């Protein structure tokens, strides 16, 4: 489907209007809201059926500053950061070890997207952050060896500069889609 | 090591300025490591992010003025909103060079005995 959407496709609308926010207001996010974002993350599909994602939520100003210092990809100043980690210890115990690693990363990606989409319902914007130093984050968050930090999501209320949302891009679907076989 | 020094182990002096410089050092080392595996264009961005941080630390240390801060903030904001328009970024960095060189030149005039 492309072009104008029929009425009442709220999920499509959310998906198409989402875009990264990098410019945030200095305004705290209620804890209850952050928990709703984690709830959204936990609702992501997981290969093997076992959710081995762990989410470290950071809201303390000094902690956020330290994290930004080791995250060159975090150009804005978010009110909260959610570190998406894999519990590799539990994955191993459940037989979802090294052979399943790709599936676990994919599942964490789905959790990331759920967080980004859910954030919109609370007036929040977010940005995935992949450019950070894993070892440094381990130190700052006190992550045990068994917890692998994979990605962070920076969240906060967008500033007026960040809005209005740009028009959703109109991809050339034929470039991305192949019917029946690759051609 | 004296007892007094031992008490302060790991604590940088200088309050906000000390914190801002410590953050900047961590940032620079992280960026040096990260840019090894990132697209080439990120290197120039990281340097400008570092510039913004250094200016922030200088501000906290009382070592700067309004004009420099305004310029650094402008650069910081530009990094946040950047699309990948390399030509525009090149112009922008050129302007920044001019600003900082003129400032260096004007604030530290050369005479024969300097
Ligand atoms: C795995 C991953 C890592 C990312 N890391 C960063 C990052 O470190 N810093 C950043 O500003 N954006 C990061 N992004 C966001 C992308 O730059 C952004 O999604 C892309 O430019 C498209 O913009 P849009 O999401 O608004 O459509 C990341 C996205 C993904 C999926």
Task: Write a concise synopsis of the structure shown.
The complex is a heterodimer of chains A (about 180) and B (about 110). With about 180 residues, chain A is α+β, with helices and mostly antiparallel strands.
Helix and strand topology:
The complex is a heterodimer of chains A (183) and B (114).
Chain A: H1 10-17, H2 31-42, E1 53-58, H3 61-69, E2 80-87, H4 88-93, H5 101-121, E3 125-129, H6 134-141, E4 147-156, H7 173-176
Antiparallel strand pairs in A: 1-2, 2-4, 3-4
Chain B: H1 3-7, H2 15-34, H3 41-60, H4 66-81, H5 86-107
The complex binds flavin mononucleotide.
The site of flavin mononucleotide has 11 residues of chain A, from strand 3.
Strand order of the largest sheet of chain A: 1-2-4-3
> What is the first-to-last residue Cα distance of chain A?
20 Å
**What is the largest interface, and how many residues per chain?**
A-B, 17 and 19 residues
Sequence stretches where pLDDT stays below 50 over 5 or more residues of chain B: 1-6
Structural class of chain B: mainly alpha
Question: Would you tell me the overall average pLDDT of chain A?
Answer: 91
Outline the structure in words.
By secondary structure, chain A is α+β, with helices and mostly antiparallel strands. Chain A has one domain (25-157): NADH Oxidase (3-Layer(aba) Sandwich). Chain A is 37% helix and 16% strand. Chain A contains 7 helices and 4 strands. Chain A has helices at 10-17, 31-42, 61-69, 88-93, 101-121, 134-141, 173-176; strands at residues 53-58, 80-87, 125-129, 147-156. Chain A has a 4-stranded antiparallel beta sheet with strand order 1-2-4-3, with helices on both faces. In chain A, helix 2 crosses helix 5. The longest helix of chain A is centred in the middle third of the chain and has 21 residues, at 101-121. The two termini of chain A are 20 Å apart. In chain A, 34% of the residues are buried. By secondary structure, chain B is mainly alpha-helical. Chain B has one domain (11-107). Helices cover 73% and strands 0% of the residues of chain B. Chain B has 5 helices and no strands. The termini of chain B are far apart. In chain B, 17% of the residues are buried. Mean pLDDT of chain B is 87; it is low at 1-6. The chains are: A alpha+beta (183), B mainly alpha (114). The A-B interface holds A 22-23, 65-66, 68-73, 75-76, 131-133, 136, 161 and B 19, 22-24, 26-27, 30-31, 33-35, 38, 42, 46, 49, 77, 79-81. The complex binds flavin mononucleotide (FMN). Flavin mononucleotide binds next to strand 3 of chain A.
